[in-house]
Specification:
single chain, 8-stranded mixed β-sheet, 5-stranded antiparallel β-sheet, 43 strands, globular
């Protein structure tokens, strides 16, 4: 399901856009030497030089204005060639599935200020993932499912593939790879600039799901999307290396059935023309790192397995918001002789040093804690920087450790700033962009030096700004222990003028699945932005809880206890925690509501149906009502294969328990949802009708998973949500 409930995604984007901004504005792009950073200001690329932080316009609007035109290009992202003599400009961007990965690319030559559009023979805004060759003489890109190389000196465009189409995809991915692996960019330059490695996805045997648009024409319009449902074989996947001179592709001899595995990471090994890729079996509980030679020979160098699933996401990518290539990477050491690898094999997410032939391995971050995110490698000092929070799962801090694994991890973030910290560290780890917030401190940023964590400019430091950023703290963090002995973190916002001698309604906000942590100590995390008004002023208690299975830094056993039990373990934990909360003297047990979106919508339905005596009112949005309708990568990762354990899918699906509905249910879904298909709504409606269960249903015509399209949509949704909640779970003390 959507990695965060979509309406929450909107809020997270706002928060992260602020929290990843510097004290001076927006996210930054570091120079290779780490002494300079760049950012886009008023549609110009501005350069700042440290430590003075002197500013100058590096690329002006005039330089960004094509010959014969009066308007400069609108810069979305930019990238330098390796020699820093050319700049790639990404503009006129358009959304593909989740983000804008398609558009136009221009090359600005800084030597003569010439500005040239790439792909002149290709349709407008059709180029994806353009990148300079290492020697800076060519650019590779994807257009309409094929891979191209353009010579910057001759303007010659060569097609390296010609057979691509919607179902036979070169250089990028199908819907499910993008949604569940965040795989978008499917091309890699060789280190000698003579070849391109690329993914080829064969979705010809993957069935289409048909999106039907009833609103834009008097006749319905049908859009097919290749979408492998759980239990269906994945699209075929293979890796080829295309020779630039001949356009001939050599296919890698990767072991296994290409329709029973996934390849979600691939890079050239520095200093070689060999590839290193990561292969997962279909169940995603076996991972193999495979080294491939240009001839196609493939050797497994490293493998591991897990009783549940392998967590494949690169920690370094998780917070990389400024990139043209949108890809997972290997973190190389010693010029490519080693790489830094993340694994949970000892029960915690740790970093390991692994040789590029797999013969040597060393634990770098020992201890009973999780590495949350890899932030930087400083080989000169032999240090790795990472995010962790060993003592409080709701917070994030910067830690460092020696790359030789000796000693103990040390906290770099200064004491006293309790909350959530983000870092964008320069390539040399000398400087960093540091951002901080907590439940009562608005997002704030500064530039610091490392390893001392000292503000570059003291008057613009977080410490200097902090007094003006303090807000009234309405969020209380607490722990609740269930009858099953599970201790869960929670936050709570009490009504204004709270009186402990009176009773108040409780609204639970839920997500509960492996892609959402709700209880975080950062600004705005406890805000219900779908509510039209002020919940505190109106007299609601607002609560969220993180159950087992949520991706919190409490060890692999916590996260993976939900394996094959989505809809059971998470629901039991939430309900048992609610039972404890109902014992609080100021809680009105007759006014208990729950709501959520996507995975949270599924949880809302399960809570309403499985525990109808607790939850009296529920608002579920874009929910998976039947687990057999969702995509294979997500559902099989966490639930196994329905061919082997169908009962688990049935037991975890809200549809199974719909007959138990007692309370007030509002169900909402967009008919154009390409993620959680609208069929879930109609299946649920049918089941509720079958058992004569009365409920309220709101379909939003032709809206997608975020229900954000169309004039007036958000206002309507917010009003619907708020009025239903107030009617069926009245606010205020009693």
């Amino acid at each position: 399901m959507e990695k965060y409930p979509p309406i929450k995604t909107v809020w997270l984007v706002i928060i992260l856009a602020i929290s990843t901004a510097t004290a001076y504005g927006q996210a930054i792009k570091w120079s290779a030497d780490g002494n300079t950073y760049y950012r886009i200001e008023q549609n110009e690329i501005v350069q700042y030089t440290l430590p003075s932080n002197d500013k100058k316009v590096f690329i002006s609007k005039r330089q960004l204005t094509p010959a014969g035109q009066n308007t400069p290009l609108k810069v979305s992202l930019f990238a330098f060639s390796d020699d820093s003599r050319k700049v790639l400009i990404f503009t006129n961007t358009q959304r593909v599935w989740r983000i804008n990965t398609r558009g136009d690319y221009w090359v600005l030559n800084l030597a003569d200020n010439s500005l040239k559009k790439l792909g002149s023979s290709r349709p407008e805004a059709s180029l994806m993932f353009a990148k300079f060759s290492p020697d800076g003489n060519k650019v590779a890109y994807v257009s309409d499912y094929n891979v191209y190389v353009e010579d910057l000196a001759t303007n010659n465009i060569k097609a390296l593939t010609t057979d691509g189409n919607r179902k036979f995809i070169n250089g990028t991915f199908d819907w499910v790879y993008e949604e569940e692996f965040a795989c978008r960019d499917g091309i890699r330059w060789s280190n000698d600039s003579r070849s391109i490695a690329y993914w080829q996805i064969d979705a010809r045997d993957t069935r289409d799901y048909y999106m039907v648009n009833f609103t834009d024409s008097v006749y319905s319009q049908v859009t097919p999307v290749e979408y492998p449902k759980v239990g269906q074989s994945p699209s075929g996947c293979r890796i080829g290396i295309a020779d630039i001179a001949t356009a001939k592709t050599t296919w890698m001899n990767i072991p296994g059935d290409p329709r029973q595995h996934y390849i979600m990471r691939m890079e050239y090994i520095p200093g070689t023309n060999d590839l290193l890729l990561q292969q997962l079996n279909r169940k995603q509980n076996e991972s193999k790192l495979i080294r491939c030679q240009p001839s196609g020979n493939a050797t497994i160098i490293y493998q591991e397995s897990d009783p549940a699933w392998i967590d494949v996401y690169s920690p370094a990518v998780a917070e990389n918001s400024y990139a043209l290539d949108f890809r997972h990477t290997f973190e190389w050491l010693a010029g490519g002789k080693e790489f830094l690898w993340s694994s949970e094999k000892d029960g915690w997410r740790h970093l390991y040093r692994v040789s590029n032939d797999g013969t040597k391995e060393m634990l770098v971050t020992p201890g009973d804690f999780d590495v949350i995110g890899l932030k930087a490698i400083d080989e000169k000092s032999g240090t790795v920087y990472f995010l962790a929070s060993p003592d409080n799962a709701t917070q994030r801090y910067l830690y460092s450790m020696k790359l030789n694994g000796k000693g103990k991890p040390g906290r770099v973030t200064p004491a006293g700033l309790n909350g959530t910290h983000h870092y964008n560290i320069s390539p040399t780890a000398k400087y960093a962009q540091h951002n901080f917030s907590n439940s009562f401190t608005k997002p704030v940023g500064e530039l610091i030096t490392l390893p001392g964590h000292t503000a570059v400019i003291e008057k613009e430091s977080i410490a200097a700004k902090l007094p003006k950023l303090q807000a009234e703290n309405h969020t209380e963090f607490f722990k609740v222990k269930t009858a099953s002995g599970i201790e869960m973190d929670g936050w709570m916002v009490k009504p204004a003028n709270f009186d402990a001698s009176k009773k108040y309604p409780v609204v639970f906000y839920v997500y509960t699945e492996p892609w959402g942590q709700e209880v975080t100590d950062q600004y705005g995390s406890s805000t219900n932005f779908l509510y039209a008004g002020d919940m505190r002023a109106d007299g609601y208690i607002y609560i969220a809880l993180d159950n087992r299975g949520t991706p919190v830094p409490k060890g692999a056993a916590w996260r993976k206890s939900i394996y094959r039990k989505i809809g059971i373990v998470n629901i039991q934990d939430q309900a048992e925690a609610a039972k404890e909360i109902l014992k609080w003297p100021f809680v009105d047990a007759e006014r208990i509501a729950v709501w959520g979106w996507s995975g949270g919508g599924s949880a809302t339905l399960n809570l309403m149906f499985q525990y109808p005596d607790i939850y009296k009112t529920g608002i579920a949005i874009a929910a998976v009502s039947n687990q057999l309708t969702y995509d294979n990568i997500y559902q099989e990762r966490y639930m196994g294969l329905p061919q082997e354990n169908m009962d688990d899918f049935i037991k975890g699906s809200p549809l199974t328990y719909a007959k138990n509905l007692k309370g007030n249910l509002l169900y909402i879904h967009g008919t154009g949802d390409d993620n959680v298909h609208y069929q879930n709504a109609e299946m649920l409606v049918n089941e509720l009708i079958k058992h004569n269960k009365q409920f309220q249903f709101m379909p939003y015509p032709n809206r997608t998973h975020g229900i954000s399209e169309g004039e007036g949509t958000f206002e309507h949704l917010s009003t619907l949500y708020t009025e239903y909640l107030k009617k069926h779970c009245p606010p205020g003390a009693k």
